[in-house]
């Protein structure tokens, strides 16, 4: 997507080209040079790429770590500096704005990431203040030159004059008179997004937003790694033997407390994978709805990158059913093929297809999953920069596509079949708004009470729908609606 928003302190975009390579010497003759102070330099390069060209940190950071042969403590530090800075970007921008004589919007996009990186080290880590400033200024000399490095040094010394709590007392609006603005600065979210999340939670917009605040705080915490044992190919016991612990809700999930999931044998063999627990549960709910008559043809309409398809293919194979997984992008369809590979009875088949122009006949499927493209507001823990990519005006741009996909899903289901509408967002126009709009124009479907098929999980029901929350369930904020074709 090219649409985006920034914090209230958005800088002007003046790209200066790609980052220069720093440092000399190689750990591996075939690898690019490892920069001096590799953790901070790599964090800076990711932050700059996010700022200037909307790069995705979760894709770019691992690639840079591999290219530069950065491992161990340096890799851990680079990860903390990158994600920590992105999560608290709005807060740091408010503080930096108070430390600069001119507006922060006038700061070049190559300088702003180094300022944020320095602010994060000073205000939110255990790095000694002098080391945080000196190391950041050293990075600044290498990437923006000596003149602007002096500017960075002066600003960061002003930042270091107060701790984070003292700064928030200065820059955050008063909570009693402006609760939304207060939480936006304290927890680093765009103001409009705080209001949208409060509406989804049912908080009083004129009140203290008492449940909204723990949700915003949860978005700034590092999420745990959750694994899925693919049915028929691995078990939770296998994952526990590898060091994981059984999950609370999904019978196929386990939590990995630390370490690289790729080190687990089951993950390397693609018998298990990384998958959020709520993503597993919304797929499982679809399989728990009873259907009269045949139950042999299942469809996943937006299958990439394949997490839910891998789980459904295993469950389908155990029931002598078959899953057709459709994905419009060929590269993502390849990931889906890997996810369903060697499922029970090879129950998964993958096709490259646009589900808004189906390659299948209407009424052909007993169960249909449509996990629609969305704003991603339910995964802000994992993709912290995504909170700055949209504005209130662009947040609803996907609604026509979402409505079209749900309508095509209902067309694909046979009478008596069931459809699961899923999105990784709690934003009301993307969730119940889409379902209600589609059903208002047709009389051949009825909403089921989705929580009845997840009856062992507390606090997920919102009317007939299910909404998971990071602060309640420790998962992404997945939404689920179940509909019966009549």
TrEMBL record:
Transmembrane segments: none
Keywords from the named record: Methyltransferase, RNA-binding, S-adenosyl-L-methionine, Transferase
Active site residues per record: 424 (nucleophile)
Keyword S-adenosyl-L-methionine set for record: yes
InterPro entries hit by this protein: MeTrfase_RsmB-F_NOP2_cat, MeTrfase_RsmB-F_NOP2_dom, NusB-like_sf, NusB_RsmB_TIM44, RCMT, RsmB/NOL1/NOP2-like_CS, SAM-dependent_MTases_sf
Segment forming the signal sequence: none
GO function terms (MF aspect): RNA binding; RNA methyltransferase activity
Domain SAM-dependent MTase RsmB/NOP-type, first and last residues per copy: 198-486
Stretch list, region Disordered: 1-40
PANTHER family: NOP2 YEAST -RELATED NOL1/NOP2/FMU SUN DOMAIN-CONTAINING, RIBOSOMAL RNA SMALL SUBUNIT METHYLTRANSFERASE B-RELATED
Family (UniProt): Belongs to the class I-like SAM-binding methyltransferase superfamily. RsmB/NOP family.
Protein name according to UniProt: 16S rRNA (Cytosine967-C5)-methyltransferase
């Amino acid at each position: 997507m090219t649409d985006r928003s920034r914090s209230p302190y958005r800088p002007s975009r003046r790209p200066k080209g790609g980052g220069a390579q720093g440092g000399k010497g190689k750990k591996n003759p075939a690898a690019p040079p490892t920069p001096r102070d590799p953790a901070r330099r790599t964090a800076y390069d990711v932050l700059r790429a996010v700022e200037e060209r909307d790069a995705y940190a979760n894709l770019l950071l691992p690639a840079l770590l591999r290219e530069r042969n950065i491992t161990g403590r340096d890799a851990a530090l680079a990860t903390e500096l990158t994600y920590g800075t992105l999560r608290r970007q709005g807060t740091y921008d408010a503080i930096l704005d108070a430390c600069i004589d001119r507006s922060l919007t006038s700061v070049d996009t190559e300088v702003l990431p180094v300022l944020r990186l320095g602010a994060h080290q000073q205000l939110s880590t255990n790095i000694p203040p002098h080391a945080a400033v000196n190391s950041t200024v050293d990075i600044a000399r290498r990437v923006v030159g000596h003149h602007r490095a002096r500017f960075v040094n002066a600003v960061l010394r002003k930042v270091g004059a107060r701790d984070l709590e003292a700064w928030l007392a200065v820059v955050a609006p008063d909570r009693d008179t402006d609760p939304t603005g207060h939480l936006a600065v304290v927890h680093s979210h765009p103001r409009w997004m705080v209001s949208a999340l409060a509406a989804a939670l049912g908080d009083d917009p004129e009140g203290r937003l008492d449940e909204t605040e723990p949700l915003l705080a949860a978005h700034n915490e590092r999420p745990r790694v959750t694994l899925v044992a693919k049915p028929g190919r691995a078990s939770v016991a296998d994952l526990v033997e590898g060091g994981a612990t059984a999950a609370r809700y999904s019978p196929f999930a386990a939590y990995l407390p630390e370490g690289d999931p790729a080190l687990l044998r089951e993950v390397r063999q693609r018998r298990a994978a990384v998958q959020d627990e709520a993503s597993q549960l919304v797929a499982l709910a679809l399989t728990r709805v009873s259907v009269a008559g045949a139950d042999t043809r299942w469809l996943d309409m937006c299958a990439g990158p394949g997490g839910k398809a891998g789980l459904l293919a295993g469950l389908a194979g155990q029931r002598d059913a078959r899953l057709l997984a459709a994905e419009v992008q060929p590269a993502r369809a390849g990931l889906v093929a890997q996810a369903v590979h060697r499922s029970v009875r090879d129950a998964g088949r993958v096709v490259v297809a646009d589900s808004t122009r189906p390659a299948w006949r209407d009424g052909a499927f007993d169960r249909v999953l449509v996990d629609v493209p969305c704003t991603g507001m339910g995964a802000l823990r994992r993709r912290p920069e995504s909170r700055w990519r949209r504005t209130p005006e662009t947040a609803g741009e996907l609604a026509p596509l979402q409505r079209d996909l749900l309508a095509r899903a209902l067309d694909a289901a046979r009478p008596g079949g069931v459809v699961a509408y899923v999105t990784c967002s709690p934003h009301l126009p993307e969730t119940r708004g889409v379902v209600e709009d589609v059903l208002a124009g047709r009389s051949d479907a009825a909403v089921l009470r989705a929580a009845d098929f997840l009856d062992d999980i507390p606090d997920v029901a919102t009317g007939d729908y299910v909404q998971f929350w990071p602060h309640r369930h420790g998962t992404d904020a997945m939404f689920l609606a179940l509909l019966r074709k009549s």
